[in-house]
Design goal:
563 residues; alpha+beta; 6-stranded antiparallel beta sheet; two-stranded antiparallel sheet; disordered N terminus; disordered C terminus; AA/rel_permease1; transmembrane; membrane
Length: 563
């Protein structure tokens, strides 16, 4: 193949591409085998965010809070206690999960402060796993696009809205219609009025914290004897492991499952890493906002569990399933108050999560498109017409709506909605292992303003290996209790990661061979001064053909450019 050289694109029309920034930079171009082709001057199209729309410390805190605080803290505690049969161990698991989350946060801070641009794990994995070229990026892209939906919280919003209106309804047509309306509202708001989208996100974040504080202080009142039910005496024999009506006796599998559930209740702490390019002074903002949010949520989660145990008898708590917070409100404030207020609280919590997830995941989708990884990258990467990632928001909306309307109610739907959490354990395993490799391999010249203590990184690595392997352990009860074999869940999750390998083979091997071109990766300096990757198509030359200035296919502008 002839030498590939980078080129400077013609001037961009400022009237139609005012949000694109053309920046000249030193670049390196590699072929599909990872061999350096050239190191000359190149350029990349940027998608600069106006300073007035960038997110400060407060906004970043609530962006994280809104994704972390979903329905988990209002429902999961019952399952945790049912698995362990111990008040002390249940509360301890919530505290331990908070510390494990902080270990993961430290790993992401080290990566995020060293590579301060939007995209999160995509950037970190690309820094570590450079061979085979494009493979890890393809795996991450497939996982993020197919599983980065907001169907679960959108549907929960629909069901809790109906419950708050006095019309409780199981999963069906009406809740799904409300879910689609919720998702559509969020996407339109972020696309057309991004400032108001962030304001609403912040407001709902404040609301969530206030609801948890209400539960915490009501719990203190319960401990002092102010409640509408007799003292449940749950703190007598605090560390005792008991077996009673609906709780205890589950064995090692039950404990492992309980930890799994608690850890997933903390998910969302990495949300700000996805939008680093839209943070004001990103390194300082992330360094302050992320630990503040995670520590705050950990304290609130632990104290909320203390509050639940202070007001709900053990048997009721174990059987409460998704209405544990409802039982707490009933025992503290009476039946009518609990019935009216809690569904509305949870519904607002759900839409806050949808706002935060849609904002962050659309930015990751746009980063993938800007680099040419997705089909029709020019469209998905566009910031027209509102200087927002409207097309990437539409992609997020499209996948979410398909998941909402396609599967029938019941096990099939629950399986799909819950599936998105599992492949993340493998992604985080690669991230943690990659950081250990960078730290130990001196030739990598790794440096970051944040330094994670090596044992902390190892703990996070082992945690994610645990999360990846545990679902394969047979349960003590029915293997088909959820309507499908217990091993189907992790197997399908791994299959989705392997689908990324298939996509990589088609994108970088099969189609280039059929189309007479090769994929090259060009590193350029973008408008923020950061080094970014652009994937391009270079025509292959026949035997005896030579060219001094080959055309390079720009996957963003979808055209060949000449030097």
């Amino acid at each position: 193949m002839a030498d590939a050289t980078s080129y400077k694109k013609p001037p961009v029309d400022s009237d139609t591409y005012s949000d694109h920034v053309d920046s000249e930079a030193a670049s390196e171009v590699y072929d599909e085998n990872g061999s350096l082709l050239s190191g000359k001057t190149g350029s990349g199209i940027g998608y600069a965010v106006p300073d007035s729309r960038k997110i400060g410390v407060t906004g970043a805190v609530f962006l994280i809070l809104n994704k972390m605080i979903g329905t988990g803290i209002f429902s999961t505690p019952s399952g945790i206690f049912a698995s362990t049969g111990s008040v002390g161990i249940s509360i301890l698991l919530w505290a331990v999960a908070g510390l494990l989350t902080l270990s993961g946060l430290s790993v992401y801070l080290e990566f995020g402060l060293a590579i301060p641009r939007s995209g999160g794990e995509k950037n970190y994995l690309e820094r570590v796993f450079r061979k085979p070229p494009f493979l890890i990026t393809s795996v991450f892209a497939v996982q993020m696009i197919l599983l980065g939906f907001s169907a679960g919280n959108s549907l929960a919003f629909g069901r809790y809205v109906l419950l708050a209106c006095g019309h409780p309804m199981p999963d069906g047509l009406v809740p799904r219609i409300i879910a689609v309306i919720c998702m559509t509202f969020v996407v339109v708001l972020h696309a057309t009025k991004p400032t108001w989208g962030l304001r609403l996100t912040n407001a709902l974040g404040v609301f969530k914290v206030l609801v948890l504080l209400l539960i915490v202080f009501a719990g203190f009142a319960a401990l002092a004897g102010y409640r509408l039910v007799p003292d449940p005496h749950n703190f007598d024999n605090f560390w005792a492991t008991e077996k009673g009506d609906g709780y205890g006796g589950g064995g090692a599998y039950a404990y492992a499952t309980a930890l799994l559930q608690v850890v997933y209740s903390y998910k969302g702490w990495e949300n700000a890493n996805y939008v680093m390019g839209e943070l004001k002074n990103p390194q300082r903002t992330l360094k302050i906002a992320a630990p503040l949010a995670v520590i705050g949520v950990t304290v609130l989660y632990v104290l909320a569990n203390v509050a639940y145990f202070a007001a709900i008898p053990k048997a009721e708590l174990a059987k409460s399933e998704v209405i544990v917070a409802g039982l707490f409100f009933r025992n503290m404030f009476g039946e009518s108050v609990a019935a009216r207020s809690l569904p509305a609280f949870v519904a607002l919590s759900n839409i806050g999560n949808v706002l935060a997830v849609s904002f962050a995941h659309s930015r990751v989708n746009q980063e993938l498109a800007k680099e040419g990884i997705l089909p029709w990258s020019k469209f998905w990467a566009s910031s027209k017409p509102f200087r927002t990632p409207a097309a990437s928001l539409f992609l997020h909306w499209l996948v979410t709506v398909i998941v909402l309307v396609a599967p029938p109610p019941g096990p099939a739907y629950n399986f799909i909605v819950n599936l998105y959490t599992y492949p993340g354990a493998w992604i985080n395993t690669f991230v943690a292992g990659g950081l250990i490799y960078l730290r130990l391999k001196k030739s990598e010249n790794w440096s970051s303003p944040w330094r994670t203590w090596l044992p902390v990184t190892i703990v996070y690595l082992m945690l994610n290996i645990f999360l990846a392997i545990t679902p394969f352990i047979p349960p003590n009860s029915d293997w088909n209790a959820d309507g499908y074999p217990y091993y189907a869940f992790p197997l399908v999750g791994i299959a989705i990661l392997l689908l990324g390998v298939v996509y990589w083979a088609v994108w970088t091997k099969l189609l280039p061979r059929l189309g007479g071109y090769t994929i090259v990766a060009e590193t350029v300096i973008d408008e923020t001064g950061e080094e970014v990757m652009r994937y391009r198509k270079v025509p292959r030359l026949g035997v005896g053909e030579t060219v001094t200035q080959p055309l390079l296919w720009d996957s963003v502008s979808s055209g060949y450019g000449s030097p």
